[in-house]
Amino acid sequence: MRSLLMLSLLVLGITAHAQETGYQVGDVVTDFNLKNIDNKNISLSSYPDAKGYIVIFGCNTCPVSRGYENRMVALQQQFGTKGYPVIMINPNDPEAQQGEAFEDMQQHYKKSSLNFPYLEDPGQVVTRRFGALRTPHVFVLQKNNKDVKVAYIGAIDNDPDNDNGSRINYVQNAVNALMAGKQPEPPFTKAVGCGVKSKRSS
Amino acid sequence: MLLKLGLYTALLNTLLLHAMAQQVSLVTVDELEHRFTAGGDTTYIVNFWATWCSPCVDELPQFEKFGVTHKDEPVKILLVSVDARSKLRTNVIPFMQKVQLHNEVLLLNETNQQEYIDRISPEWSGSLPATLFVNKGKQLRRFQEKEFTYDQLVTIYRSLK
Is the CB of A155 less than 8 angstroms away from the CB of B113? Predict the structure, then answer.
């Protein structure tokens, strides 16, 4: 009886952990419906012809995220018309971080060269579901029949300071692999970035 | 005469503090691990931060206060910046001149994030701020990817003693 209790506690623990950490590579993605800076909502299903998606958690205030914006724009130019559009979601709680409100996103978009949707995530619901922890944090998704699955999680490349002579373009390589019918290698990378801002849980 | 001496001492202190505040050594993960081992029973609180990370900058005073209130205890705070090495002269040192940190400041001398993030802790996603608590003598190692208040630092330090 006691071992049964322990087992159920263990299972509960694992479930809770899985929810906390968000999607892993291979997981099926639930569609979202979030407001874009033009006040129109965007979902994965807004792109009926998409073969996949490049979902980037990025924001207004993080210098690392901003430093990558030109490379995000290049990804949209390279892959947007090939069926892998870039969609950026702001994961920060505007009450926890100044400069991240919807109006600030609109302002930022106007001043930037961003060429893809930039969505707000009220209550950080989608952010938590994905398990986005920092900006920028990328999830490359692949559509198979009806399912959308996570194919790659991590960094855009290994060159945050734009000075690495031997740059590896992880996201570019991942999407190219998917287009060639292969799985991304590596499917997961880590990178230093700005922590997602949430209200202190103390 | 006394007044003059006092003035000189004050001036000297300011200059010394200024000079101390400017020192930033480079450190690799291996060198950090060597320090933890050499420190024996000392608890190391290693805060990973960057000048571009505003919550990190906001959190630094908590570590400064902790350093002052625990200066007679076997605990050592290391503020390890993960700013790019190319930003040492342009960003890190000017920042330190502005805020005058008393804890030891180091700059992480590593470039391969795929390697060093996991070596510091497999629990680290790479998000900043993040803090590592190590006591080699007691074989304790804890990592947290979050912002700390002074009280939280005291609580976790006491739990490691």
Answer: yes
Spatial strand order of the sheet with A134-135 comes to A134-135, A193-195, B127-128
Q: Of the candidates A63, A133, A161, which has its C-beta nearest B127's C-beta?
A: A133
Residue in B87, B125, B149 nearest the CB of A134: B125
CA dist list (Å): A35 to A50, A102, A157: 19, 9, 28
- 3-state secondary structure (DSSP) of residue A22: coil
Q: How far apart are CA B39 and CA B20, in angstroms?
A: 22
A48 upstream amide cis, omega within 30 of 0: no
pTM: 0.86
Q: Is the ipTM reported for this complex over the cut 0.85? A: no
Residue type, A153: I
A4-16, pLDDT tens digit by residue? 544 444 444 443 3
Question: Which tokens belong to B36?
Answer: 């933890």
CA dihedral A166, A170, A175, A177 (to 10 degrees): 70
Q: Find the Cα–Cα–Cα–Cα dihedral B147, B150, B153, B159, rounded to 10°.
A: -140
Residue range B95-105, pLDDT digits in tens: 999 998 999 99
CA distance B54 to A104: 17
Q: How high is the mean pLDDT of chain B?
A: 89
DSSP A105-159: HHHHHHHS---S-EEE-GGGHHHHHHT--EESEEEEEEEETTEEEEEEEE-S-S-
Higher pLDDT, B17 or B129: B129
Residues of B in contact with A192 (CB under 8 A): 50, 82, 113, 117, 126-128
Quickly list DSSP for A53-115: EEEEE--SS-HHHHHTHHHHHHHHHHHGGGT--EEEEE-S-TTTSTT-SHHHHHHHHHHS---
What DSSP character marks residue A27? P
The most distant pair of C-alpha atoms in chain B lies apart, rounded to whole Å, by 61
Report chain A residues whose CB lies below 8 A from the CB of B147: 195, 200
